[in-house]
């Protein structure tokens, strides 16, 4: 809990190291004039600069952009896209629908919580292996405690190759970005899981975390960078629902619901 003394130290004008807006004059972004010094940056480059405070070269940006592109699925059946589509079906605004869809993207089983969990595990595992521990023991201990490894296996087809991994690894290899220590660690974890009784292969979360860590992002940086990773697939689902009659996206009739509660009764019944 923040103490009164700590709060008092921050009383008064807000002091920030990340920037400020001065209407009619200029905008400052991490110590740089946004419209003079940073005007030639792409949006992705600026976004990453805001998170990390550093610039990335063209090959690195191409890889980081592809990570977003390769998982942009406009499929309403996906849990987060469904929220965007249902917002369109109820004629809610695009901002509300997509904001809600992004919020539920943080699902702890297969969403944002997995993204940061595997980045954190890879970081800690690498440090412990560098200190002399064996990866096989670390993996076995984690599986014993958690009965699963974030970034490995998929909800339905745990032993299938993730269709996103091949194209992304090909791109990373062409850019000379597929030989980092975290990526090798992620591959070694997959080898252990496949050979053992767990039978789980690496999915997109582990691959993207490893690539980001090898580019110098921290687990928190990676989490923030990945926040919009599903965004491009959401507006098509919202618009698709708008093209249908209101309420006609994934409707359920009463007959389709198996109800096992108290029987129906009249309002005047006690």
Description:
This protein starts with a helix and ends in a 28-residue tail after the last helix. Helix content is 49%, strand content 4%. Helix 6 (112-130) packs across helix 9 (181-195). The mean pLDDT is 94. By secondary structure, the protein is mainly alpha-helical. The chain folds into 3 domains: 26-55, no CATH class; 71-105 and 230-247, no CATH class; 112-225, Cytochrome p450-Terp, domain 2 (Orthogonal Bundle). It has helices at 4-9, 43-52, 58-69, 79-89, 94-104, 112-130, 135-146, 165-174, 181-195, 204-214, 219-225, 234-242, and strands spanning 19-22, 26-29, 32-33. It has a 3-stranded antiparallel β-sheet, with no helix packed on it. 26% of the residues are buried. It is globular, with a radius of gyration of 23 Å.
Descriptive labels:
270 residues; mainly alpha; Cytochrome p450-Terp, domain 2; 3 domains; 3-stranded antiparallel beta sheet; 12 helices
CATH hierarchy: architecture of the largest domain: Orthogonal Bundle
Q: Could you name the CATH homologous superfamily of the largest domain?
A: Cytochrome P450-Terp, domain 2
Report the total helices.
12
- CATH fold node name of the largest domain: Cytochrome p450-Terp, domain 2
Shape: globular
CATH class of the largest domain: Mainly Alpha
Instruction: Point out poorly predicted stretches.
Output: none
Please trace the helix and strand order, writing H or E for each element. Answer: HEEEHHHHHHHHHHH
How many DSSP E strands?
3
Question: Which helices and strands occur, and which strands form pairs?
Answer:
Elements: H1 4-9, E1 19-22, E2 26-29, E3 32-33, H2 43-52, H3 58-69, H4 79-89, H5 94-104, H6 112-130, H7 135-146, H8 165-174, H9 181-195, H10 204-214, H11 219-225, H12 234-242
Antiparallel strand pairs: 1-2, 2-3
Helix pairs in contact: 4-5, 4-12, 6-9, 6-10, 6-11, 9-10
């Amino acid at each position: 809990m923040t103490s009164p003394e700590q709060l008092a130290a921050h009383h008064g004008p807000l002091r920030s190291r990340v920037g400020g807006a001065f209407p009619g004059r200029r905008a400052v972004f991490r110590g740089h004039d946004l419209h003079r010094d940073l005007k030639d940056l792409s949006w992705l480059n600026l976004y990453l600069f805001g998170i990390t405070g550093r610039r990335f070269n063209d090959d690195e940006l191409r890889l980081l952009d592809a990570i977003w592109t390769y998982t942009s699925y406009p499929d309403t059946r996906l849990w987060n896209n469904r929220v965007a589509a249902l917002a369109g079906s109820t004629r809610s605004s695009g901002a509300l629908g997509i904001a809600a869809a992004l919020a539920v993207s943080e699902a702890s089983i297969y969403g944002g919580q997995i993204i940061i969990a595997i980045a954190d595990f890879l970081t800690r595992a690498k440090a412990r292996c560098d200190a002399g521990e064996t990866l096989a023991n670390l993996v076995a201990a984690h599986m014993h405690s958690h009965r699963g490894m974030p970034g490995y296996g998929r909800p339905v087809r745990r032993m299938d190759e993730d269709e996103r991994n091949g194209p992304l690894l090909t791109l990373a290899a062409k850019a000379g970005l597929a030989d980092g220590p975290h990526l090798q660690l992620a591959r070694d974890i997959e080898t252990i899981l496949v050979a053992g009784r767990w039978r789980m292969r690496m999915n997109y979360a582990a691959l993207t975390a490893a690539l980001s860590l090898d580019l110098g992002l921290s687990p928190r940086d990676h989490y923030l960078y990945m926040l919009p990773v599903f965004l491009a697939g959401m507006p098509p689902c919202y618009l698709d629902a708008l093209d249908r009659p209101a309420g006609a996206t994934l409707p359920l009739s009463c007959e389709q619901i198996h109800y096992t509660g108290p029987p129906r009764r009249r309002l005047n019944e006690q």
